[in-house]
């Protein structure tokens, strides 16, 4: 049975959003994005969700998830987790509030050994791996290429899942407008409350609602 794994960091999360959000706002906002991701996974009928986080990062108690604590960095913590798993794992980052249940159902029903969803700029937003102990992750930098190479080295058949919404991780202020345009759930409510949208002849962008 497929399990979902969400790596999650709350403390000083999303430093690249600092030009738009204060520390307190970023820490509240990542929790709302996490809630939206969890809801979509539950809507996709994946019953077991593990949130991999560090001891000082409170996961809201009302979420129906398991909390797995590991103080090591992202790659070490995930690789330790994968090394003990025998069933398929759907690894999704917590900064993907645009994910829908349909994406998750499509990805987890693929026949290949590994499915990778690229993030913009070379990152990796989702990895679905059928045999987790035969895989390891290498996030940061051009992690999409790292993960394609790891799958190749392990002789895994691989599918690259092409999706605008799932490739849109929320890293930088300009990504917030995508939540206004295409989001749902609590993160969308938050962004609509906190910012205005500027539209015109150029791309839509956020502006401060109290400007
Ligand atoms: N368990 C764990 N998760 C992490 C850690 N660092 C980041 N994450 C999670 O990994 C995913 C991708 O992280 P980033 O996009 O780099 O998020 P971030 O580190 O909060 O953002 P920046 O400070 O802007 O780089 C998100 O789901 C984070 O919550 C970590 O040290 N441990
Ligand atoms: C974790 C990292 O996220 P990014 O910095 O690309 O958002 C990656 O996808 O390798």
TrEMBL record:
Family listed: Belongs to the CofC family.
Question: What is one GO biological process annotated to this record?
Answer: F420-0 metabolic process
What is its pathway? Answer: Cofactor biosynthesis; coenzyme F420 biosynthesis
MF term (GO), any: GTP binding
> Which residues fall in a coiled-coil region?
none
- Name-wise, this protein is 2-phospho-L-lactate guanylyltransferase
This molecule's function is given as: Guanylyltransferase that catalyzes the activation of (2S)-2-phospholactate (2-PL) as (2S)-lactyl-2-diphospho-5'-guanosine, via the condensation of 2-PL with GTP. It is involved in the biosynthesis of coenzyme F420, a hydride carrier cofactor.
Reaction(s) catalysed by this chain's protein:
(2S)-2-phospholactate + GTP + H(+) = (2S)-lactyl-2-diphospho-5'-guanosine + diphosphate
